[in-house]
Design a protein that fits this description.
Blueprint (H helix, E strand, L loop, with lengths): L3 H10 L17 H13 L3 E3 L2 E5 L2 H15 L5 H7 L16 E4 L3 E5 H14 L8 E4 L10 H11 L1 H14 L2 E3 L6 H8 L6 E4 L13 E4 L2 H8 L4 E4 L2 E8 L8 H12 L7 E6 L8 H9 L8 E3 L4 H9 L3 H9 L14 E6 L6 E3 L7 E3 H11 L5 E6 L7 H16 L7 E4 L4 H9 L2 H7 L2 E3 L22 E5 L15 E5 L2 H10 L11 E2 L5 E2 L21 E2 L33 E9 L6 H4 L12 H4 L18 E2 L6 E2 L1 H10 L4 E4 L12 H8 L2 E6 L4 H9 L3 E5 L13 E5 L10 E6 L5 E7 L4 H9 L2 H9 L1
Parallel strand pairs: 4-5, 4-7, 5-6, 7-8, 10-11, 10-13, 11-12, 16-17, 16-19, 17-18, 19-20, 24-27, 27-28, 28-29
Antiparallel strand pairs: 1-2, 3-9, 6-23, 14-15, 21-22, 24-30, 25-26, 29-32, 30-31, 31-32
Helix pairs in contact: 1-2, 5-7, 5-9, 10-11, 12-13, 15-17, 15-18, 22-23, 24-25
Length: 794
């Protein structure tokens, strides 16, 4: 903070600063009042980021709103509640009930990765608005395929994706959106380094946006239509989240890492245990975790279905802010710290306690991120289950684990192996999280150590984590094991091979296992044999959480939006195979949905990867009709146990799901999908909602939904409905037809009636629940949220 005398001088010279109000004659102000007023004026001038010097952090407004809500609720508040309720559009009148009411919020900013930004910007263009209303950024990280290595892969990506990158760059320039070029790094690492701060409310079009919670913000993954609302200046709606508390005691040490905290929590809560809730970490154990370690934990909270995760502001966050050139934000956060930590005595809807002293290194998988094993036990479990023990590839990095500390701990393991003449037995890849991380680990020698042990440094991008991996060492269908420091390990996620058994763990465990080459190796107890024939044991890695010198920023990869964009053109060719302007979806016709054909009844897990695959399909994320050719190709049909094979009810022939959906659309046959539990878990990709709507779908009926996907379906005018009695899933057969009644009286909390018409002429009636509020019902009637926005503009 500036010296007291300087503050008084500033006050005397200032007639008024943004956010500062002075009342009464100046001579009535005592010295203490001068000081307080000066501090308030100084607070008002701290920018949210270096890139937006005129957009200020509004802790004063946060404080005001928190005080209004605290007085209304008359109880201690969790940190999650302080930040969320502190961003209410109308804190004095907003109905607040955890898990029940919908909140109208004013987020501070929006972030979009390039794969989802295409559709988000196409929707924003359709809105007709001239500029975004809040600070927004686009990050090019999803379209770079891992093939040969960082520089070569980046050059290839720039060439292949030139049309898309040009569209995003010019759209950003036209509408006031900052643009991070390809090679800049993964969106979540860029946000942590530049945009997240304690108390921020940020929404991002990627499910791992919660990464920013490691810096004390509420950062939530959403679909593109939600981002459009916020960029348009419309209050954003979120069901009032419950709050799950995770109390941490003890301290991390040895081989145990921050990743093990979330791997343990995932094992406790499962992939849907956090749905509708914010996970709030607290307790004395928090201080033993670095800021980037906290980000790792928050990042993978997406895998338990949580709305987001958050840590309280502490000295580890301040240290990170200082090192990343944001000491002014750290000083401001110190002033408002009471609002950036939970109140004593606050209530959690569920409480989990983890003693970090007792926590052991974990590895989760295969095929689901909540199947948790201690590293010491996974080898014997794999033998029992018939999982391949031989590790073909170890992969470190991704948005979850690509910090300076992560790379340092991995290098510490690799250095020990090299000292004994060993290299990795498995293939080994390294993905830096950002250009800043890449440049810094190159300067400090970590990258070379990882290369020396056998690693290939990939581009600063998502790469294999999202299926952008041109894998050559196996054939499709070949059973094999990989270990990664990523966040997801769904079937076929990384390499499109359904027989790849993917396990997620910490970067240092990945490195140790890649050196050993087998799941049966436990670095805490087992020995390796050096080149000289002598046995040795790896010591637990130790590395600095931040570099001693300043970070090396590397190449400048940011494009500022121009002050005057009136002459900026944004072109989309009508013959493009990558981009397609959007046409409005049809409005509801005012009638019940009669005789819906069942496109597919899904058996078991159905993630957004099953609904709208990534990997090679990412190139079509800006072209709705082309990407719709991957609709539900990964979902298992209950009728025959096969993927991408469904019966055409008219021809009675089995064929691909997208082809069958197109046939129904061309013949005026409306259809429905029947799903199982936690339908749509995983990514925030709204293509999984846009595609069924585009191809004639009208409703998705399941046992339960993942939060983001349910909202995305509503935004596009579809009906996400759940069985009142989950056992009714078994009453519906793929050859049946369904009629959904009650839409003329569609109202919040009122179930809809579903008539099941069997081929033999018999009928059954079941009830379907929904979570629509009045605003969302208007989206349905208008045909989509975007249609409704245009109606309101008129």
């Amino acid at each position: 903070m500036a010296p007291y005398s300087l503050l008084v001088t500033r006050l005397q010279k200032t007639k008024g600063l943004p956010g500062c109000t002075m009342t009464g004659p100046k001579k009535a102000l005592g010295v203490r009042q001068y000081h307080v007023a000066s501090v308030l004026c100084q607070r008002a001038k701290v920018a949210m980021s270096h890139f937006e010097p005129n957009e200020y952090i509004r802790y004063d407004l946060l404080e005001k709103n928190i005080n209004i809500v605290r007085k209304r609720l008359n109880r201690p508040l969790t940190l999650s509640e302080k930040i969320v309720y502190g961003h209410l559009d109308d804190p004095a009148n907003q109905e607040i009930e955890r898990g029940k009411t919908y909140l109208r919020l004013r987020p501070d900013r929006v972030a979009m990765q390039d794969a989802t930004a295409q559709m988000a910007m196409l929707q924003f263009i359709s809105s007709g608005l001239p500029k975004v209303a809040v600070p927004s950024t686009i990050h090019c990280d999803h379209l770079i395929e891992a093939q040969l290595g960082g520089e070569k892969d980046l050059r290839r990506a720039k060439d292949i994706n030139q049309e898309v990158y040009n569209f995003l760059a010019t759209a950003g320039a036209k509408y006031g959106v900052g643009f991070w070029r390809p090679g800049s790094g993964i969106i979540h690492q860029i946000i942590l380094e530049n945009y997240s701060y304690p108390g921020v409310l940020l929404i991002g079009t990627d499910s791992h946006t919660p990464n920013g919670g490691g810096l004390g913000g509420i950062c939530i993954g959403v679909g593109g239509a939600d981002a459009v609302d916020v960029m348009a200046g419309i209050p954003w709606e979120l069901k009032c989240p419950k709050v799950i508390g995770v109390k941490l005691t003890g301290s991390l040490s040895g081989w145990t890492s921050p990743k093990d905290v979330i791997l343990k929590v995932a094992g406790i809560l499962t992939v849907k245990g956090g749905t509708g809730a914010i996970v709030e970490y607290h307790g004395p154990g928090v201080d033993s975790i670095s800021c980037t370690g906290m980000a790792t934990i928050c990042n993978m909270g997406a895998e338990i279905g949580a709305t987001t995760s958050v840590f309280p502001y502490n000295h580890r966050m301040k240290k990170y802010l200082n090192k990343t050139g944001r000491a002014d934000i750290a000083n401001l956060a110190d002033e408002f710290k009471d609002h950036l930590v939970p109140d004593p005595g606050c209530h959690y809807d569920q409480l989990i306690e983890i003693n970090l002293n007792e926590l052991k290194p974990h590895i989760n998988g295969p095929f689901t991120p909540d199947l948790a094993h201690p590293v010491a036990e996974v080898g014997s479990v794999a033998e029992k289950e018939g999982w391949p023990l031989d590790i073909r590839v170890g992969l470190i990095g991704s948005c979850t684990n690509s910090s300076y500390e992560d790379m340092g701990r991995s290098a510490a393991v690799a250095k020990q192996a090299l000292a004994h003449g060993l290299k990795c037995k498995s293939q080994f890849t390294i993905t830096p999280g950002s250009e800043q991380i890449r440049a810094t680990i190159e300067r400090d020698g970590y990258a070379q150590i990882l290369r020396d042990v056998g690693g290939i440094v990939l581009a600063n991008a998502c790469g294999p984590c999202i299926g952008q991996w041109d894998r050559k060492d196996i054939k499709k269908g070949e059973k094999n094991t990989i270990v990664t420091s990523y966040n997801r390990n769904f079937t076929g996620r990384n390499d499109a091979n359904p027989e790849t058994h993917a396990f997620v763990t910490s970067p240092e465990i990945v490195t140790a296992l890649a050196i050993a080459g087998t799941l049966k190796f436990n670095p805490e107890t087992d020995f390796l044999t050096g080149k000289d024939g002598k046995k040795f044991k790896l010591e637990a890695p130790d590395a600095d959480e931040l570099p001693h010198a300043e970070f090396d920023p590397g190449q400048d990869t940011y494009q500022h939006p121009p002050k005057d964009s009136s002459g900026q053109r944004v072109d989309v060719s009508p013959t493009s195979q990558r981009l397609q302007l959007l046409e409005p979806f049809d409005k509801w016709d005012g009638k019940d949905l009669e005789d819906l054909q069942i496109l597919i009844k899904v058996k078991g897990k159905c993630t957004t990867d099953h609904i709208s695959a990534a990997g090679p399909w990412l190139k079509f994320r800006g072209h709705l009709d082309n990407i719709s050719n991957n609709l539900l190709i990964g979902a298992i049909n209950v009728e025959n146990g096969k993927a991408n094979s469904v019966r055409n009810a008219v021809t009675q022939e089995f064929g691909p799901v997208p082809d069958t959906a197109r046939y129904y659309k061309e013949h005026g046959i409306r259809w429905v999908v029947i799903g199982d539990e936690n339908y749509g878990e995983g990514s925030s990709r709204e293509h999984a909602a846009l595609e069924p709507r585009h191809l004639g779908g009208r409703a998705i009926i399941t046992k339960s939904f993942a939060r983001i996907h349910e909202t995305n379906l509503k935004k596009q005018g579809l009906l996400p409905l759940t069985f009142t009695d989950p056992a009714d899933y078994n009453k519906i057969h793929p050859v049946d037809k369904l009629t959904i009644q009650g839409l003329k009286d569609f109202a919040p909390g009122k179930p809809l009636k579903c008539i099941i018409k069997h081929p033999n002429g018999t009928q059954e009636t079941i009830l379907l629940n929904h979570t629509f509020n009045e605003t969302q019902i208007e989206w349905f009637r208008a045909g989509s949220a975007l249609n409704r926005m245009k109606e309101l503009q008129k």
